[in-house]
Amino acid sequence: MNHNRNHRPILAALGAMLFWSFSFVWVKVAYQAYEPLTVVLLRLVISALLLFTFSLMIRRLQIPARKDAPIFILLALFEPFLYFMGESYGLKYVSSTVAAVIVATIPLFAPFFAWYFYREKLTPMNIAGLVASFLGVAVVVTNNDFSFGASPKGVILEFLAVFSAIAYSTVLRKLAFRYNTFTIIAFQNLIGIVMFLPFWMIFEMRGFLATPFHPGAFRSILLLAVFASSVAFILFTFSVRSMGINRSNSYINLIPVFVALLAWLILGDQLTPRKFAGIALVIAGLFLAQIKKRDLPAPPADQDKGGENK
Questions:
Q1: Burial level of 121, CB count in 10 A (0-12/13-18/19+)?
Q2: Global pTM value
Q3: How far is it, in rounded angstroms, from Cα 200 to Cα 273?
Q4: What are 208-224's pLDDT values in tens digits?
């Protein structure tokens, strides 16, 4: 019994990574009928309803203090608003595999922001990992002659998502010790809906109303909301609480591998030896950057919220 219980956090982390990996594929399927803002808005609405309902059922929902309203707004500005603007529009121009490889560099840049804003120690391993992963990304997004094999616009948009996620984590520290994870995610999604709504009404509402209902695309949006934005978050939270933030975060490195395989199986994306080599280099850099992190004390479980909206 204890043996099975010890495996639960690992299975939870793997489940979260798998759902977040599927999200890169589900978004592509949703784009068969709906535009990016429509996909994001519907995803947030469904996810917010689920999280508020679940939080109320388990009596974990807290009402934010008025003085914290500006921080919640800034939090939602970075994620979901800017993060999804970058990721969702980026996926219109690059493959799911390329997007996943770029987004997977989030754990690499985070220590540099932590060093700048909080004076946390920056190790040589952090720098070595960053260099290795940058080389890996370069291999994935370029051709054999090093010309761009991926859309530069898509790559820039995906890196907007990366830096938005890191800025989000930086702002999050101001709230992490006063509110639980369910409260923070539920309210940031609610504020995100308010931010997205005017843009959706101006740019996509008319097209959405004129678009015939597409069962396959809408099913992908439901899957995104339920599994990528809700269930994966709950699984990852359980994993963090059980085995710590650093060990749980190490599983994020599997996302590019999962996405590459899923995109190949479901979307028919090409998987060349060059792409495999680039993905391997990115993952090697990510693990390299984390080698020394294990010596540092892990922060409380509620401090980590960097990946739950992927």
A1: exposed
A2: 0.79
A3: 40
A4: 999 999 999 999 999 99
